[in-house]
Design a protein that fits this description.
Layout (H helix, E strand, L loop, with lengths): L5 H7 L8 H29 L3 H34 L10 H27 L7
Length: 130
């Protein structure tokens, strides 16, 4: 049974890193998230700064690539501990409450790692206050 998600693509396809599908999923999730962030945020940044398409995309890349990378690093770091130290991917099904509780903690770690980066980006004028 296929899924319309990054996880479904990895399960059906050959995307593996380090012999594990989870790393391929994380890589694909990161690329998809960055693509969506750039697409959505472009329409905010370009009109605010009256930028042409290329300059708007470049401004968006500068504003959110580091931010998203720091968020994902904190989130993936926690989930790596959960999946490979505390549990195993087989012991922690994505349909269970423990997995989703751990994801909530992962989001907290994502916030903690992204906050100083976003503060710096705002201070340098690379990112706009909303």
């Amino acid at each position: 049974r296929g899924e319309a998600s990054a996880e479904g693509c990895v399960r059906e396809g050959p995307i593996r890193r380090g012999g594990r599908r989870v790393f391929g999923t994380w890589a694909l999730d990161y690329v998809l998230a960055l693509t969506l962030v750039i697409a959505f945020q472009y329409f905010t940044i370009a009109p605010m700064r009256d930028l042409a398409v290329g300059k708007g995309i470049w401004a968006e890349l500068k504003a959110d690539t580091l931010s998203l990378t720091s968020w994902q690093s904190g989130m993936y770091g926690w989930m790596a501990l959960v999946l490979f130290v505390f549990y195993s991917p087989e012991q922690l099904p994505k349909t269970g409450p423990t997995f989703w509780f751990m994801m909530q903690i992962a989001m907290l770690f994502g916030f903690l790692t992204a906050y100083p980066v976003n503060w710096w980006l705002l201070r340098k004028g690379i990112k706009e206050e909303m």
